[in-house]
């Protein structure tokens, strides 16, 4: 099989009608896939999609590419594989309709054979549309990778290998491999399938082979059970991956096809006494919800960006990710496998009752089986995947017909993959909106409603009405996911002693409460915060407003234009850890030293308005453009009895931890440049300290994040305002121009600022708290030069080499 990326040579432009022309400048432009057609469109406060998409418009787009098809392909099978097109994709070959995929997140493939002109240049075009069909920023277009597959008529189809490890102990593991063989020829064919299993170090540790006869136009499955001695277990701390190579040979021994599949040897167990066990060990899921966009890259799914997100989230203390609210990309799944991150992969945000005017509910009843099949086929060999979520805050879930859908979806998942657990993100209030007509009328936006209900939400989620209404839908699940319903955890252990719960979505500022419940209650297996990584759309739901600002008007959770980012991630879109991330790390018990977070002195004493997804407006900095002696509030996060604060060895006093919030000591003090030190004590003895130092004269610095940049990857360049010791100046932001020369192009540029009007396309973007991130996409191998310049600073430059991709 020839399987190659088909990412170059494409153009994209608005889809024009037969009587329209591109004379007005709207013609197609050259792009490289993956590509987001929405990212660079002009935003407007009048955009009908509003806060949901970060005031970004929708549209209808046409991608096109010429494909040279050799004459000898006439005897082959030619397939175009799309990992995701948002949405309602229509594929044409030489102007002829070839395929339609309604869903924006389901992978699909198109057999091109009937439409190709062999020995000629063919035209491939793909239409995609996005308009008022999402509650967050979806992006649009061919935003995930595309591959061209040229195979023998007798071949291993895409996702045609399945690997399971049904029997494992310390002595050996049984590896069950099933390889599908497709025969598109006109005659019955007898072939031979061979398998080789390689250990993480590449050593072949098991092998098998079997003949398989396939009738014309049919498929057959060849199976083998092999034994791996002294198996290395895939785990969150030891993500060891094995590899099985399946080869398909003709009767005379000629190689017809091959497939390479990575897998892990690991076991899962689930019960209310031990919770979730991975390889026999109980594990509490330190979880983060994540959206699919890549910040300044828009919705484009670049494997290097997906890998970076997983690495940085793992480094911040998370051990599990929930894709929200759509199937995770293949690249992110592979990264989770490599880095030991567990996955809850989610099917959809809605079933049959819509949350947006033109969302996926329009076609769900017709395509749900195919969407589940696509999800499972993509996931089933990934050891990181432990749960499938069949939905999120489904509106009809608390009705008898909604329970019917719950059972239908759960059983379909189990039929295709009985080795993993099924869950659903249930919000009892959202599922009972019809019974709360008055509340819904007053607060029509679900986020605003939940934010405004406060303590009432917990009481309502635990009410007899909600309990009775969701009972059947919950009963079809292996793990009951609860969104914002920790008020149910204790009572459910009594009312439903066999029920296992996961906090599938929770408020970030309640992690101290949530984690205590997870650790205390064995039937609660983990907590997934909203969110781990900041994202585009649902703009401003995590912001902090200063209510004495002239013209301030309360807007609930909706951030007014020009808000673009949600503002609620533990990490911002550049990958920088925000203070909440360090607070969470201390709550998890992963950090011994305290952590200092300083409220911005220029806002001291001002009244604020927040949402349940907000944290404080703090920065870990002691370098401010504030007068010496100006009042300032300092928070110190610590797992300690008390914290003492020092400025240049002078004590500013001690405060107990937990007076205002668990793991928090708050100080009202005065700003004075110098060295700020927090000393944490337990039982009178020091257990850790954290220090901040005021910055000296600052320079503009550009720093390459990774030592090696491969031609199929990305280069992440951090641009900062910092002094000679690397201390960042956080409140003197400047516009920075980034220029790229040589074997690369600027793919995106941005900062953690949630309400910027600047374009992610660059080349100019303003720093936020002294930082921004530029992303460079290689255009080949060779030398790349990056130069950053800003008014009042000497330019910062760096040069690096793009090398061939690692094997």
UniProtKB/TrEMBL annotation:
The keyword Hydrolase applies. The keyword RNA-binding does not apply. Its EC number is 3.2.1.23. Residues 629-687 form the DUF4982 domain. Residues 709-798 form the Glycoside hydrolase family domain. Keywords: Glycosidase, Hydrolase. It is an enzyme of class 3 (hydrolase). Residues 276-451 form the Glycoside hydrolase family 2 catalytic domain. GO terms for molecular function: beta-galactosidase activity. Residues 160-266 form the Glycoside hydrolase family 2 immunoglobulin-like beta-sandwich domain. Belongs to the glycosyl hydrolase 2 family. This is Beta-galactosidase. It comes from Microbacterium paludicola.
